[in-house]
Write a structure and sequence with these properties.
- There is one protein chain.
- This protein has 8 helices and 18 strands.
- A hairpin with a 3-residue loop joins β15 and β16.
- Bound molecules: ligand PPE.
- The site of ligand PPE has 16 residues, from α6 and β15.
Length: about 300
Amino acid sequence: MLKAEKIWLNGELVAWDEAKVHVAAHALHYGSSVFEGIRCYKTEAGPQVFCLDQHLRRLYESCKVYRISVPYPPDVLREAILATVKANGHRACYIRPIVFRGVGSFSLDPREDCPVEVAIITFQWGAYLGEEALERGVDVGVASWARMAPNTYPALAKVGGHYTNSQLVAMEAKDRGFTEGIALDVFGYVSEGSGENVFLVRDGIIYTPPLGASILGGVTRACVIRLARDLGYEVREQLIPREALYIADELFFTGTAAEITPIRSVDGIPIGAGRRGPITKRLQEEFFGIVTGKIPDRHGWLTPVG
Ligand code: PPE
């Protein structure tokens, strides 16, 4: 990770090495943190943050689910995010805002005693699954670990604790020689990657699991659904059985970090022709065209850093 100069911590920009947390922090013990991953892209008009308001909305919604009262209103964090990117002089970067429960007690109802702290970290992050992955695609495996069952952990909330499951999926995939894993939900339907949503193409129709399949409601997922519909494709949010992965014409991941990454094989079985498919490529062109300012931002997804 290429560290930046400053981190925004509880209202102030401090030096990267000074942005510290105490070992008794509640979040460290119990995963009580809510975070976002946002990308800022380099454009001719300067750096622009992609889907800032959509990410902020999810941050506050995740906090709402976990009864975390954020000590700043959304417009303050919005400005703080832009100020942090600016202060670090980034042309492009990954932005990681995190709201977490600090030191106070070890109670599992930390609302009274633990202060809520907020940090905004920015750093350089290239292609998540490798530079060549965006074109060539990645090899993935179906995970032996399932995503959380409904009514156990709220999958729609982006909470630190939930990512212990993602770590099991990601580590297992690597150990089996894959770049990434796809986890099923507890009913055996396709859910998502350790840090990405999944899309499938068959006979020209695009499918993706519904919110009820224990997925995170991806911001990139929503943008890709929008772009696909703009291009005239039919998109269906519906339950996907595991074997539909193997017989798909195209598969791809979406995510802030992963952007749109083609999947070229699952469990050693080639998908379609075993390389990036035409609809995946078409969506990438549209997505990367917009985020780099080469295609007009017709949906208002970009915010200039200023
Ligand atoms: N599912 C999961 C589990 C997930 O972590 C992400 C984002 C997505 C779907 C896609 O959501 P969105 O970014 O809103 O389109 N994963 C973030 C973190 C990955 C990581 O820390 O590693 C990300 O892409 O920023």
